[in-house]
Amino acid sequence: MKRGMFEKIFFAGLVSVSFSLGIGITGNAAANQADSEGEIELIPHESPTDPKDPAAPSEPQEPIDPNNPATDNKGPLSLDVVPKGFYFGAQKMYHSAHKYPAVGAVEHKQYLQVTDNRGEGSYGWTLKVRQDGYLRNKQSRYALKGATLFLPNGEARNRNNHEGATEIDPDLTTHNVEVTNEEKIIFSAPDDASKKAGKSVSTNSWQSQGVSLMIPKGIAREGEYSNKIYWILTDGGPTN
What is the domain range of residue 189? Predict the structure, then answer.
């Protein structure tokens, strides 16, 4: 009688162990599952980009600088900011050739801003500058033939620069330019997929007093003179 009771107890123990192992196996089985969809349509970024701080293009232009106004050009590749103008004030005439520095506040910067929001696979852009003709007298239309505007080599920065937005970006190229009737490169990003330079916001800035005007000898006449400067942004790096 005692032996039979022991056998039942032992058998119950086996059942208990077997049931415990069964729970462990069931826990590793696949649970119920379902699926949902994710969907997006990417379209070109055609909105204008506001002026940024030329020394830190990840930050907005603060305070607003009327001497570097927004162009309101649309993207995805856009020229957002150019200098309002280059001013030399009232200056004395010389018969000999003479160089005049631009009038501007000390430490004031002029700058160019380019935004590239094109999709991956599109790299490189080139910004050129030219004049519409020599400085011309507003009344007599007499032209200061040979008078040349000089723009200094600027500092290039990019919002996505891995060294930081305030640091000069070595993958962007700037040039000092003698502005003529021919288009000349002043700012560019290479057509190089490995560098991906010039994407997002890039700036090229210089001190406004670094701009100068050279008037050759023997052409100066009294009067007020002006002309137009044109900036041309094109798709593709400077080698294209």
Answer: 52-235
